[in-house]
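**Sequence, C-alpha cells**
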Amino acid sequence: MRIEHIALFVNNLEAARDFFVKYFGGRSNDGYHNEKTDFRSYFISFDDGARLEIMNKPDLPDEDKSMERTGLSHIAFSVGSKERVDELTELLHADGYSVVRGPRTTGDGYYESCIAAIEGNLIEITI
C-alpha cells in the first residue's frame, strides 16, 4: 500500500503550483476547473511517483497554521543529501520564505530544515 496523494487547499493556486515546480522539481498537469462550484486544482507529480493535489475554492476559511496543532503538520521532501538540504534552505530563505527550524540534526537522527512556505504551510526538507 502507498499514499496516492496529499491534497492542500490554498488561496493562490498559481503561486502554489509555481512553488512546487520551481523548488522541488514537480511537474504540473493542466489543471481542473468545476464551473458549478468554482473548484480548481492542479496535480503536481514528483520523480518518485508521489503526487500533491493543490486546490482552491472561493471563500474558504484560512485557519491558523501554527506548528503544534491537530491535523496536517507539514509535508516533507527528501532531497538526497545534507548539502542539498542546506542549499535549498538558503535559496528559499533568500527568496523570502521564513526558516522555522534548521538546518539541523534532530534527536532521532534526521537532518532537516523547516520552511513556512505557501501561505504559512510548513515544508520540511530532509535528506
